Amino acid sequence: MTSSETPEDTGGTQFSLRRLRAFRALLETGKVTSAARVLGVSQPAVSRMLAQLEDEVGVRLFARRKGRLIPTPEAQVLARDVDKTLTDFERLRRTARGIRDRDEARLRLAVTPLLYQCIVLPSMEAFVADNPDLSVTLEVTTTDTIVERVATGQTELGLASLPVTHPGAEAVTLFRADSVCILPRDHRLAALDVVRPQDLVDEPFIATTRRYPSRHRIDDLFRRAGVPLRVRAETSTAGVACDLVAHGFGVTLLNAMTATAFLGPKLTTRPFAPRLSHEFGFLFRTDQAPSAITRRFVDHLKGAMADRVPPHIAALVEILP
Q1: Are residues 180 and 269 in the same domain?
Q2: Is the bond preceding residue 163 a cis peptide, omega within 30 degrees?
Q3: What is d(CA 89, CA 84) in angstroms, rounded to the nearest whole number?
Q4: Count of domains in the chain?
């Protein structure tokens, strides 16, 4: 490979693209000086590439006549395939560029309401600022729907509670967080260092609906502790649960990380025991690698997560690399 060639041009093939381009330019202009001007290289470089191409082909391609280069019959035969090769290559480059530009400008994700509120929304502004041409397709929905969207290729990235079991979706854990008890600031349990199931006997409880796995885990924990839950209200979102707690409807359990997004001036938290850990993470389609923009967004969220863990819950949250 000469100093005027790049790895793209030679690439280990017999005919380099630069030599083929030089050949076409000579056919079109008939002069080394004109071909050099078209290609943006020196005249010696054009002459050298022509000589190298003639060596590779094994025949003479041009004859000099009155200061011009006249193509030989062999050159005329070669020209048809050279033109097709270069045209096809330019089409390939345009296609590749279109794929790159499309992937770099489009982010498709589906996320649960909880993770949207506490993870995605606070991180999106900075990511958009770094990617001003970004277009986002965002669906906020349930974990089951997210798994189906990812597995069928309707969205490229999911963020949901884990674990999930679907052959078409691969999960990568982002963080784990222990449960905390959400209380009104003036609640009697706010005086405790740790809240346990026995402390919630006869206490009105705000529960998630039974379609969420976390609800079944909470029910099982209290059943094993021999403490019946006094469920006053059920809701599908953590934000509504915290609103109900703030207005005196009862108390609730949430994971420590997402609880920080909903705590207002009327609410406080206390660690809950025994430990009830929740896992959240990314979902990718099993048979398809993520696009460049999706990989950048995943890295961005990981970095943002590390900066968003308040010191008072640091012991309750584990962020995975």
Answers
A1: yes
A2: yes
A3: 8
A4: 2
The model's pLDDT over 270-292, given as tens digits with 9 standing for 90+, comes to 999 999 999 999 999 999 999 98
pLDDT tens digits along 179-199: 999 999 999 999 999 999 999
DSSP class of residue 289 equals P
- Tokens for 262, please give them: 């909903």
Instruction: Measure Cα distances from 27 to 1, 24, 185 in Å.
Output: 24, 5, 85
The residue type found at 190 is: A
How far is Cα 318 from Cα 321, in angstroms, rounded to an integer? Answer: 10
Of 53, 81, 102, the position where a domain reaches its end is 102
- For 32, phi then psi, to 5°, come to -65, -40
The answer to whether the pTM exceeds 0.70 is: no
What does the chain come to in residues? Answer: 321
E strand or H helix that includes residue 242:
helix 238-246
| Contact (CB, 8 A) for 121 and 245 | no
Decide if 117 contacts 254 (C-beta within 8 A): no
Encoded tokens for 43: 């005249």
Is residue 253 one of the residues assigned to a domain? yes
